[in-house]
Amino acid sequence: MLPYWLPLLQEAEEHVPTSPFEPEFGVIFWTWLVFGALFFVLKKYAWPAILSATEERERKIAHQLEEAERMNAEAKAALEEHKALVAGARDEASKLIGEAKTVGEAEREAILNRAREEQEQLVDRAKREIEAERERAIAELRREAVDLSLAAASRLVEAKLDDEANRKLVMSYLDSLEQAR
Questions:
Q1: What is the pTM of this model?
Q2: Is residue 3 part of a domain?
Q3: Which of 19, 41, 37, 40 is nearest to 29 (CA)?
Q4: Total tally of structural domains belonging to the chain
Q5: Can you give the pLDDT at residue 175?
């Protein structure tokens, strides 16, 4: 076979093509020879490395996708848990606010009741004090009335009467008038 190709190679060297579409068998031969050798070397040495790198990358991507899906599921679960916790916290907060309002109302009522009781006690004490002062004033007025009556009676009689006996007499008279009322 080599003798057949040899004249073609020599002819290819002597012949310069005039058109780009004219075939040159020498260039075609060497192109196929280099292509075959390169293909053989790549298939023997580079293809397994490229294939293993591609498979490894595929495994990494698959693992990363699985990890992303797992993390997404965890994030969704955490979000749901967070929503549940927030809802529980809101319920607890509204419950505490309701209880605080109830306690506040009870305290307000208790404070108002104490204030009313203290007011009533103050009013009662003031009434008692007023009554006591009135009684003292009435007793003082009686004493003065008795003294004035005795002074007037002694001027009329112009004699000195026993103050103590006369005072008892007038006081018993005034007490009988008060009981008659």
A1: 0.38
A2: no
A3: 37
A4: 1
A5: 76
Contact between residue 39 and residue 46 where contact means Cβ atoms under 8 Å apart: no
Residue 89 token pair: 């916290």
Q: Point out the residues of the chain with pLDDT beneath 50.
A: 1, 159
Asked if residue 5 belongs to a domain, the reply is no
Tell whether 7 is covered by a domain: no
Domain that holds residue 145: 12-180
Residue found under tokens 């112009």? 158
Residue 17 located in a structural domain: yes
- The tens digit of pLDDT for each residue in 1-32 reads 455 666 655 555 555 556 667 777 888 898 99
Tokens of 164: 């103590």
Distance (Å, whole) CA 145 – CA 47: 141
CA gap 57, 49 in Å, rounded: 12
User: Are 142 and 174 contacting, i.e. CB atoms less than 8 angstroms apart?
Assistant: yes
